[in-house]
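Retro notes, item 3 of 5
We never archived the inputs for the flavin mononucleotide complex last cycle. Fixing that now. Sequence and ligand:
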Amino acid sequence: MRRIEEKKQRGFLRMGWGSVTNARFEIKPMDLDFSGYDTIVLCMPVWADKPACPARTFLRDARLDGKKVHLLISTGGGEIDKPVAVAAADLAKKNATVGVTARVIAGFGRKYASDGELEQAGREFAAKVKGAGS
Ligand SMILES: Cc1cc2nc3c(=O)[nH]c(=O)nc-3n(C[C@H](O)[C@H](O)[C@H](O)COP(=O)(O)O)c2cc1C
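Structure as it came back at the time:
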């Protein structure tokens, strides 16, 4: 499991505005070659109805050509149709597609779900991905 980390910390307004304007937030260097992987799961939060900027940098830069990427999306309560569509459009540019998707309501400002509930959501999602066959 790898963690996508921003190079620079930003406040709420910059994060939200960055998402609205499709800004590229730099992420810390990581291995972005997924050619040897069959199953790829991206866990990401929603910012302003889109994948969070660091997740979008990943979607744009990772070598995911021809891959199916499963998305576990945390929100403050919002739906995930729009962020899934944005991720699908980013992936389509490299002939990659979105696989299984699920939403977990994690909280907005204040934590909504306990760590145990988040872990349970992760386990349920893993079972769903397994059931879908890579
Ligand atoms: C800048 C910003 C914008 C957000 N926009 C939305 C939104 O449009 N819809 C929503 O349901 N939650 C929104 N959220 C809440 C996040 O999705 C939520 O805090 C996140 O999923 C929690 O995961 P984390 O603790 O890993 O950040 C936003 C949060 C931030 C920081």
